[in-house]
Write a structure and sequence with these properties.
Radius of gyration: 13 Å
Strand content: 15-25%
Oligomer: single chain
Number of helices: 5
Largest sheet: 5 strands, parallel
Shape: globular
Length: about 120
C-alpha cells in the first residue's frame, strides 16, 4: 500500500483528499505546513506528496526545493494542489521539480488519476 503525505493548512481539504485516496487503497497522513511535512518525513516512508502552494511557515514551493535537494527525498513525486490558477505559479512549480499541478477544488477522479500515474 502506497503512503501519501498531504500538506495543506485547511482541514476540510485534508478530509476530502484523505477520504478519496483511502477509498482507492492508499494510506494517508496529513500535516498543516511544510515544516511539519519535513518532520514527518524523518520518521515516515512516503511514496508521494500532495502539497498546497500557499501555507504559513513554509509554502509548497519551498518544501519542494528542500525535498529535491535532499537525496533521501529527491525522487518522491510531488503534486501541487492549489486554488491558484496563475500560469506563473505552474511554471515556477514545474521549474523546481513538481511532477503535477492540480487546481482546487480538486476533482476526485483527476486526483486519483494523477496519483496513480505518478506511482
Amino acid at each position: 500500500m502506497a503512503t501519501i503525505l498531504i500538506v495543506d493548512d485547511y482541514a476540510p481539504n485534508h478530509r476530502l483528499m484523505s477520504f478519496v485516496l483511502e477509498q482507492h487503497g492508499y494510506a494517508v497522513q496529513a500535516v498543516v505546513d511544510g515544516r511539519q511535512a519535513l518532520e514527518s518525513l524523518e520518521y515516515t516512508n512516503v511514496d508521494l506528496v500532495l502539497t498546497d502552494l500557499t501555507m504559513p511557515k513554509m509554502d509548497g514551493l519551498e518544501l519542494t526545493r528542500i525535498l529535491r535537494a535532499d537525496p533521501r527525498f529527491a525522487l518522491i513525486p510531488i503534486i501541487i494542489v492549489t486554488a491558484s490558477t496563475r500560469e506563473q505559479d505552474h511554471v515556477r512549480a514545474s521549474g523546481i521539480g513538481v511532477n503535477a499541478f492540480l487546481t482546487k477544488p480538486v476533482d476526485s477522479e483527476d486526483l486519483v488519476a494523477e496519483v496513480a500515474r505518478l506511482l
